[in-house]
């Protein structure tokens, strides 16, 4: 079709435009089959139980100490690993901006690569390093910093999760420092503000939206994580993703409907966090756009 | 800031950056050392060094099989993604730019719904019936497409905006090219680098996918990650060699993406 000006050519072009929509059909089919349909199934069946349609699955979850513990563990691990991971990433990315470009590029590239070091291989590496007989555990005990370390506990998992939060935090926070101009620091210093005052009244408020956004993404990242904790504790540590998987692929007590209810709670938690983030963002006074 | 103050500050920043590097390096370095040691238990340093674990690993038929199957699934998923996403991007950005808003909402779904949640529905829907495919690599190819989608969509969108698609197409049309010809011979070559970068990076995270592979397929089509999980009770040194070999591949692909990215600017 050559594009001569004229009404026929124009109508051909309009027709071609609508025909082009046909190209979207294969994409839509695959997206529905592998993304939308499973989510719809989970949503509908979370309301289905042997007693019939209703909220029976949810009341079962909320009245069970076992499932409530899973939710609590998930939230605690996600919260602390996100907070510590973000703090490390914040200090790290600020310093990354201040060093010479060779060191910066090298460490940034390395950090991006380690963001793919997660899941089962990461859990394995941590067993070697920080397991009961791990090299680092033994070293830390020997120099008297710790008495013992249990990687397979809640605190152990927080350390492990923090590790995989750091590269993601650096990736998200590093560009945020663009908002903080270096001459502001000099101006503040001229007006008599010390380092502390600068960060308290200028630096952190300017970075707040980016920090909140990063925190939300890190929380979601940790809440949905499954492979690491599964490999580390062979599916024995009580967190939400482990419980969900256990109810559909375990050897005993299969209950896809209850798994659906737990899934909805997990997705719901993420939705609540995202909405809270939007509200906080609106209230924080420094919103550029 | 005077010079006397600047020096300790510079030293502080260098220290923080090196500390960050050390923290990130530690698990990898530990695993590397473990994979090279003859035996290492209940001591801070290993007893001796050897390559025998790598020799054993790369001579193990089950490992090579899992490795090949992982590659097949990842390449299959990436090929599917390109075939589905490129026309989508072209149609959205050239004909219906308003759909971009809708797409940006849709591609949030793979982020918002963790794989473990999708797996609940996938297992029930495709365990039997007309679309029975759990336990086969096909379901992984489909699921990996959804994982790669948000990333590839965003990366190539940025690229399309950079080359100014409508102007490029108008110019090609003016010179007598059909829409088809313009899309294939003008737009596609301009996207090649961005596409390669996003493919390399997608590969490096699909290669490490475990949740879908373990829950939907398991040992019936063992991928590398599932193999590593199933080898849990074998020698730690052997497994270390496996982890390092795996990460080496990821490293090559991320490095290639990095290089391509640098060439572009």
Layout of secondary structure:
The complex is a heterodimer of chains A (289) and B (265).
Chain A: H1 7-20, H2 24-45, E1 48-49, E2 52-53, H3 56-62, H4 65-98, H5 101-114, H6 119-130, H7 135-142, H8 154-173, H9 182-190, H10 195-224, H11 227-233, H12 240-249, H13 256-283
Antiparallel strand pairs in A: 1-2
Helix pairs in contact in A: 2-13, 3-13, 4-8, 4-10, 5-8, 6-11, 8-10, 10-13, 12-13
Chain B: H1 3-35, H2 52-58, H3 61-95, H4 99-106, H5 109-112, H6 115-125, H7 137-163, H8 165-174, H9 179-206, H10 211-217, H11 224-230, H12 236-264
Helix pairs in contact in B: 1-12, 2-12, 3-7, 3-9, 3-11, 6-10, 7-9, 7-10, 8-9, 9-12
The CATH homology group name of the largest domain in chain A: MetI-like
- Helix proportion of residues of chain A, in percent? over 70%
Mean pLDDT of chain B: 89
Helix count, DSSP H or I runs of 4 or more residues of chain A? 13
Structural class of chain A: mainly alpha
Q: Biggest interface, and residues per chain?
A: A-B, 90 and 89 residues
Strand content of chain B: under 5%
State the end-to-end CA separation of chain A. Answer: 43 Å
Helical element count of chain B?
A: 12
Question: Could you tell me the number of beta strands of chain B?
Answer: 0
From the 3D structure, determine the CATH topology of the largest domain in chain B: MetI-like fold
CATH architecture of the largest domain in chain B: Orthogonal Bundle
Q: What's the story with the biggest beta sheet of chain A?
A: 2 strands, antiparallel
Provide a concise account of the structure shown.
Chain A: It is found in: Cell membrane. Chain A: Belongs to the binding-protein-dependent transport system permease family. CysTW subfamily. The complex is a heterodimer of chains A (about 290) and B (about 260). Chain A is about 75% helix and about 0% strand.
């Amino acid at each position: 079709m050559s594009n001569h000006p004229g009404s026929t050519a124009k109508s051909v072009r309009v027709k071609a435009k609508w025909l082009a929509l046909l190209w979207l059909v294969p994409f839509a089919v695959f997206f529905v089959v592998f993304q939308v349909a499973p989510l719809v199934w989970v949503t509908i069946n979370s309301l289905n139980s042997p007693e019939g349609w209703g909220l029976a699955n949810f009341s079962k979850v909320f009245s069970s100490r076992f499932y409530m513990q899973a939710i609590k563990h998930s939230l605690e691990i996600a919260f602390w690993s996100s907070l510590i991971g973000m703090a490390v990433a914040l200090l790290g990315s600020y310093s990354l901006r201040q060093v010479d470009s060779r060191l910066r590029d090298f460490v940034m590239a390395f950090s991006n690569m380690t963001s793919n070091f997660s899941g089962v291989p990461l859990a394995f590496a941590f067993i070697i390093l920080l397991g009961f007989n791990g090299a680092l555990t033994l070293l830390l005990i020997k120099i008297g910093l710790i008495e013992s370390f249990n990687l397979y506990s809640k605190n152990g998992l927080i350390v492990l999760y923090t590790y995989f939060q750091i590269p993601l935090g650096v990736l998200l926070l590093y560009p945020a420092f663009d908002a903080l101009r270096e001459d502001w620091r000099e101006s503040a210093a001229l007006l008599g503000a010390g380092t502390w005052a600068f960060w308290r009244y200028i630096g952190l408020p300017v970075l707040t939206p980016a920090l909140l956004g990063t925190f939300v993404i890190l929380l979601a990242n940790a809440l949905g994580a499954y492979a690491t904790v599964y490999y580390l504790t062979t599916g024995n540590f009580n967190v939400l993703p482990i419980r969900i998987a256990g109810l559909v692929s375990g050897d005993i007590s299969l209950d896809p409907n209850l798994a659906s209810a737990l899934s909805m709670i997990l997705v719901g938690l993420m939705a609540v966090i995202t909405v809270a983030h939007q509200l906080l963002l609106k209230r924080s006074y420094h919103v550029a756009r | 800031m005077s010079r006397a103050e600047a020096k300790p500050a510079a030293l502080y920043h260098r220290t923080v950056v090196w500390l960050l590097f050390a923290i990130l390096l530690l698990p990898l370095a530990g695993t590397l050392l473990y994979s090279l040691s003859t035996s290492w238990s209940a001591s801070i340093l290993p007893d001796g060094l050897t390559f025998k674990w790598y020799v054993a690993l790369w001579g193990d038929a089950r490992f090579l099989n899992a490795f090949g199957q992982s590659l097949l699934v990842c390449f299959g998923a990436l090929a599917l993604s390109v075939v589905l996403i490129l026309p989508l991007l072209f149609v959205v950005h050239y004909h219906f730019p308003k759909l971009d808003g809708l797409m940006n909402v849709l591609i949030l779904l793979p982020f918002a719904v963790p794989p473990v949640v999708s797996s609940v529905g996938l297992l029930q829907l495709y365990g039997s019936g007309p679309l029975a495919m759990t336990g086969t690599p096909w379901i992984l190819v489909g699921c990996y497409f959804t994982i790669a989608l948000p990333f590839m969509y965003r990366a190539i969108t940025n690229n399309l905006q950079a080359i100014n698609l409508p102007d490029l197409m108008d110019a090609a049309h003016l010179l007598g090219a059909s829409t088809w010809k313009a899309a294939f011979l003008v737009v596609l070559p301009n996207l090649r680098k961005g596409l390669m970068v996003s493919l390399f990076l997608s590969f490096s995270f699909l290669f490490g996918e475990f949740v879908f592979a373990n829950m939907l397929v398991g040992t019936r089509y063992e991928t590398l990650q599932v193999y590593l999980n199933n080898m849990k009770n074998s020698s730690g040194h052997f497994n270390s060699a496996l982890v390092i070999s795996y990460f080496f591949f990821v490293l090559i692909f991320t490095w290639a993406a990095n290089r391509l990215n640098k060439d572009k600017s």
